[in-house]
Amino acid sequence: MDRYAVVGNPVAHSKSPLIHAAFAAQTGQALVYEALLAPLDGFAATVAAFRAAGGLGLNVTVPFKLDAFALADRLSPRAEAAGAVNTLAFERGDIYGDNTDGCGLVRDLTQNLGWSLSGRRILLLGAGGAARGALLPLLIEQPAALVIANRTESRAVELADRFRTQARDTLLHACSFDALSGSSFDVVINATAASLAAQSPALPEGLYAPGALAYDMMYGKDETPFMRAARSAGVAVVADGLGMLVEQAAESFFLWRGVRPHTRAVLATLRTLIDQG
Ligand code: ATR
């Protein structure tokens, strides 16, 4: 059978084997998908061994997305823009690196949540890898404005400068959290790691335009502090990143197999599993 895997450290918690098994069953694709633990200093060797054993593709998770970027012989434009790789495909004797995270985010927003981004005002919180990976796919949707705000303002400015030429008609701006005071947005996306420390970014009041969406790239059994803060601020539509996880997986599956799985039922099953703890 064709072999795929997710490689990370740690990796035992990964939902990817479950998601890809569901996609394979649904589309009738004969494949196996495992979880592969790589030593922290042994990413390239783990990939090489998997490939030598006939493996066809890998998803790459923490902390190896930069290693995967460095390892790829060829990169998709969105991987190049992200500066990180979450999907490897072994084809024609070389290693192709792609990044489906940002595309997964946009698909979740536009298709699962039914949110058109074109002409909207978007606020992206954070300036690390997660924010960078989202930028090109968000800009492709042609929002009216895309503001990157970060605790460390200089990182937001650097990130905005990097994407200046891809912004076209979108007003691309970078600032600190404090400088957001007085502005409002239709979509606010939390791409910071604050939730990992059980915190919400320290944001000024009044950020949400009427009918706005608050979206956290993180997910879990309970709502994140950012999501709870958004609800307290009166935001009606609040979403976590579980849909993004399923959509990035679907895009990887499509890259490897040329078949696009339906995601709705898989997302619903996963939600139930997570709610059950
Ligand atoms: P990732 O690849 O997950 O984005 P990262 O590159 O370490 O991880 O970036 C983490 C992001 O979360 C950064 O934007 C960081 O802000 P700083 O650049 O100021 O460090 C942000 N972040 C982490 N903890 C945060 C917190 N408690 N409040 C606000 N932002 C936080």
Protein topology:
Layout: E1 2-8, H1 16-27, E2 31-37, H2 43-52, E3 55-60, H3 65-71, E4 74-75, H4 77-82, E5 87-91, E6 94-98, H5 101-112, E7 121-125, H6 129-140, E8 145-149, H7 153-162, E9 171-175, E10 185-190, E11 208-216, H8 225-232, E12 237-239, H9 242-257, H10 264-275
Parallel strand pairs: 1-2, 1-3, 4-6, 7-8, 7-10, 8-9, 10-11, 11-12
Antiparallel strand pairs: 3-5, 5-6
Helix pairs in contact: 1-9, 5-6, 5-9
Short synopsis of the structure:
The chain has helices spanning about 15-25, 45-50, 65-70, 75-80, 100-110, 130-140, 155-160, 225-230, 240-255, 265-275, and strands spanning about 1-10, 30-35, 55-60, 75, 85-90, 95-100, 120-125, 145-150, 170-175, 185-190, 210-215, 235-240. It has about 280 residues and is an alpha/beta fold.
